[in-house]
Design goal:
Elements: H1 5-12, E1 18-24, E2 31-36, H2 42-51, E3 54-58, H3 61-64, H4 68-74, E4 78-84, H5 88-95, E5 104-108, E6 115-119, H6 122-132
Antiparallel strand pairs: 1-2, 2-6, 3-4, 4-5, 5-6
Helix pairs in contact: 2-6
Length: 201
């Protein structure tokens, strides 16, 4: 799979000899398309591919020779495939028109003189950068997935006893002291001071 496509688009957009750079998404994986405005030097490409342990094989020779309307139906324009670890069986089936699973391929545009380099793997991008004489920078590794934090352990809730309210001291209401009425027993009449009733005849 091709990675870091946005950076690749910016790096190659204005390189001399390149007509257009595209990111083409497919369900099987994203592809990186580079459309050249002149013919590729296939000998140079083969030498560069060898440096990366890959082989450039011809493909689609037979269907490409069919009449154009028929060729457009049977042939998708792939003229070369860049393959790593190519077996003799894959080489044989490729000659019959079965496209091997490679890291990149060269497509001839049926409607113009352009050739398109299609990278299907990151190794194919390396070959492309080697061919263009550009420094290849590997894509940044994906960020490590964040380790989920351990779920907090619920503390066992202890029964909470309501705090006793401090007792407010009760101060007895103090009433001003009122002297109790004193009752003095009546004094017996004093014989000297009290007048004696006089008896009248």
């Amino acid at each position: 799979m091709v990675e870091d496509l946005q950076r690749r688009l910016l790096e190659l957009r204005f390189v001399d000899g390149i007509e257009k750079v595209e990111h083409v998404p497919y369900p099987s994986g994203d592809e990186f398309w580079v459309r050249f405005n002149n013919r590729l030097d296939m000998k140079k490409l083969e030498e560069i591919a060898k440096n990366y342990g890959a082989t450039v094989i011809k493909f689609g020779g037979l269907p490409s020779k069919l009449p154009r309307p028929l060729a457009e139906l049977l042939w998708d324009g792939v003229s070369h495939v860049i393959v790593k670890n190519l077996s003799s069986w894959e080489r044989f089936t490729a000659s019959l028109g079965f496209e091997p699973n490679g890291i990149a391929k060269i497509v001839s545009d049926a409607h113009g003189p352009f050739q398109i380099f299609i990278a299907t793997q990151e190794e194919g991008v390396q070959v492309l950068y080697g061919y263009l004489g550009l420094k290849y920078v590997a894509p940044a590794p994906p960020p490590k997935p964040a380790v989920p934090a351990k779920p907090p352990v619920a503390a066992v809730a202890k029964p909470v006893t309501p705090a006793a309210k401090p007792a407010t001291p009760v101060t007895p209401s103090v009433k001003p002291a009122v002297p109790a009425p004193t009752t003095t027993p009546p004094k017996p009449p004093d014989e000297k001071t009290t007048p004696q009733p006089t008896s009248q005849p």
